[in-house]
Amino acid sequence: MLAATLSTLTPRMRLNYSKPNIDNLVFRLHYKVTVTLLLAFVILVCAREYFGEHIKCISDQGVPDHVIQTYCFFMATFTIVRHYNESLLEHGFLPHPGVGPIMENDRTLHHTYYQWVPFILFLQSICFYMPHYIWKKKEGGRIKALIDGLQMAGLALQAEDMKVGSTTIPSKGTVEKQIEMIRKDILLRLHISRTWSTWLVALELTNLLHLMFQIWIINIFLNGQFISLGSNVLAYNDWNQIADPLETIFPKVTKCLFHKYGPSGSIQQHDALCVMALNIIHEKIYTILWFWFLFLFIVSLLAVIWRVMSFFLYRRSLKFNHMVFRQVSSGKFDPHNIIQVVNGCQYADWLFLYYLAKNMKTSLFAELFNRVAEELKKRELHLNKDKNKANGEEPVLLSKVEYTDETLPLKSEKKSS
Length: 417
Prior knowledge:
mainly alpha, three-stranded antiparallel sheet, 7 strands, elongated
């Protein structure tokens, strides 16, 4: 069973360098790490041979064991709030936390979640994968289509393409044609790439909102006790105590009442004591999920904040653009070219260029970047000529203007330049 589990989940965690990078690390934490974690928990919960029966109940004579166990599993068990008393447990007045005589006014906690744990975990894994699935469909393989064939561009030394096994090493001419094709695609789709980037940003925000929704759902599923679960575990210092905070949510021993007709037709009540073997696994699963979801929420929130910051900074800071493009490409970029490209693009185009930089060799992207800048420079020069002819002024080329600070001029500032 363990070997089968590992063989099922290992391919999900394997890095595939042949696939283009169309999302960020936080996005991958949602659809790769979280989905793998949830599927591992589903398999663990269903591995009955390691933990025995999910529930084992004992009661007085008159009811077969399999009947009372089946009834209690499907109709839920309960514990009594009054009997979560540390001093009574220590002095032996109570056999187990939450288990003892029940009175008419006693408040009880009914535990029904254990029937649904594997189903809920599996549905959650599907939900966490859905934003990635939607993004793959909306992205449409555009990045892959553009960079396909350039993975071995660093070895392009020959005049013709070379076939080495299943890998094709492109020639210098092939690389040149591919870069020119990417340049034309960028310029033809300028201001049309907005849909590509809009879907990416929208689904990054969806990941954050979906995570918050999942936390809310689990909190309802565990009777409102999931939100404080991790903090209670951290605040619990003495692990030798009998009644730990997890006992309230995941009791190991519970009660169950079974009613049946007696020989004379009167209703008889049978009080059963049930051992919940699988709760020892449930408490570990949801404790891990609490800490993982906290970490995932923090990094997802930071990712959204970073995306908002990049939207406001990409046209206002030359230093920011240098930092971003040098982060994914170690090549040197001419500040005038950066100004030209940034002022000639919308944020959607800028973001698309950033993802191209993540998927291309440094030298190739630097060459592509310079070509795009040159083409935008020519377009702007023609546009300025037409405008200045009408006004009787000399044409001004933006890339020739000197800037003493590191702030990029907005398009609305060009006229004042």
